Amino acid sequence: MGFVFSKSMNDSLKAQREFMLMNSRLQLERQLLMQNQMRERQTAMQIAWTREFLKYFGTFFGLAAVGLTAGAIKKKNPGVLLPIVPLSFIFAYQYDMGYGTLLQRIKGEAENILDTESTLLELPKGPLTYEDLEKMRRSQSKFFIEK
What we know:
Blueprint: H1 2-75, H2 84-99, H3 102-116, H4 130-140
């Protein structure tokens, strides 16, 4: 009788372990999906912000270019056009970020760094460990009670 009860208990524990493993895997998958969704939404917000900024900056750049060109013609001094050079670089960067391929190039370079230069990604003093955190917590805690 004890053997039957023990076998039933083992089967129950095994089923419970499998359920817990499946549940933790499902939870991890959900967390990964949620993190990816948040990253995608943040990137979309950044692109949208860049496109909106580009509208305002493009208007400013156009007015500045017309005004500086008119001033250069009126004063017969081409040096008045000099501010257009840095403004055009800013405009080109913002356009590339909002509508161009800048993000794909950045992604490609990031993948290259991950593949070929991973030593640049190492943290100073190595990865953070639980023991390091506990040591810092104990040194900063006013209420720490030693066991």
